[in-house]
Amino acid sequence: AAPCRFAHYFVLCGIDAESGLEPDELAGENFDQSPLRRTFKSKVLAHYPQNIEWNPFDQDAVNMLCMPKGLSFRTQADNRDPQLHSFIITREDGSRTYGFVLTFYEEVTSKQICTAMQTLYQMHNAEQYSSVCASSSCSMDSLASSIDEGDATSLAKLQRYNSYDISRDTLYVSKCICLITPLPFMQACKKFLIQLYKAVTSQQPPPLPLESYIHNILYEVPLPPPGRSLKFYGVYEPIICQRPGPNELPLSDYPLREVFELLGLENLVQVFTCVLLEMQILLYSQ
């Protein structure tokens, strides 16, 4: 039965080549930023299975939680390391499902998208050019002639910063793969997604077609019974997870070290004190 499966959905989010570059107003669009630093709308490109009756797939919510800042673009000069994050969906009855997302960057092969990015940069540079000249009290007549050396240097710096040239640069766009599960098996999901990503980017094909690994985790890997551990196969290595028993502490598969690194010792002690005193706590993050 579906409620007893390890994973409910496998989701793929990214750019829709047909709709092109759509500004993402919900992400706080700022047109003063260079186009590479703006955010664009992402979409759910595929999800399997199509729907589970007792846990309907909410496409808009999953897309927003998978890519909360929308699409982001990079060039070969930028850092493109994969990143993992998680989310929780709480339904009206209080039940929860958990999402684990690996975001990576892949090369944009659509000439239409690359051309659109180039056009955005031409418009952006023209606006910067106008603002530089306006700040130096240039008249409209002098725009066609020449600007002083200081303005030329400023403009050159603006054009070099976060620039994109279709004939020189390789454009990359963010994409994500996601598992939605009934229990927060973070480490197991992380290992599975990383192995899947390595198989996609490897020069050598994986031992089996990628679809077989996704089918396996969706339909053949069960939830471990309470108090038992489960071993299943990823693309390259086996993955082990353990479910606490009825009299044990609830499942907490998140590394405690990261909490110390993010908050620091004093802040963590203060948060823990507030928890014990049953105070309301708000954590704010980018």
Question: What proportion strand?
Answer: 15-25%
What is the architecture of the largest domain at the second tier of CATH?
2-Layer Sandwich
Q: Helix fraction?
A: 25-40%
> Based on DSSP secondary structure assignment, what is the total number of beta strands?
8
CATH topology of the largest domain: Beta-Lactamase
Distance between the termini: 39 Å
User: So, the CATH homologous superfamily of the largest domain?
Assistant: Longin module
* Number of helical elements: 8
> H/E order of the elements?
EEHEEEHHHEHHEEHH
Rg = 24 Å
Unreliable stretches:
143-147
Q: How many domains comprise the coordinates?
A: 2
Q: What structural class do the secondary elements suggest?
A: alpha+beta
| Major sheet attributes | 6 strands, antiparallel
Shape: globular
Describe the structure.
The protein is α+β, with helices and mostly antiparallel strands. The protein folds into two domains: 7-108 and 166-247, Longin module (Beta-Lactamase, 2-Layer Sandwich); 254-285, no CATH class. It has eight helices and eight strands; from the N terminus they run ββαβββαααβααββαα. The protein is globular, with a radius of gyration of 24 Å. Residues 143-147 have low confidence and may be disordered.
